[in-house]
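Following the same procedure, the fold was encoded as tokens, giving this record:
***
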Amino acid sequence: RRLDLRDNCLRTIDDAVFQLGNLERLSLAANPELVDLSPAVAAFVDAPGRSLDLRDNAQLRTPPPDVVAAGNTAAFFRTMRAADAALDRQRRRAYLARRDEALLRKLATLEARAAARSRRVPGAAPRTRPAT
């Protein structure tokens, strides 16, 4: 029912994979050398109850010539939209994590300054700036 082929450095996928009768979910995510998909991908995606995961395959930006010739570009772009949305969510989470890390560093600096101020000896003369 499920076939997970992610992270396998695949270059091609045989048409027979898309025609497996019991296959409902196919993951081809993160195969950076995969640049072409056969027209059989459209029939697979259009079948009810089937899903195709193409996340992290940025090299699949345009439909393969065979998909265009077969007139199945709509299914290809539907699948790519879903993959792009997942990639956008991953990028957003990474951005937020970097931003939060920077804010935590700033907070730690402010806390260190506050701690240094509180360690000053009571009654000591405050620092003054020289008159200019």
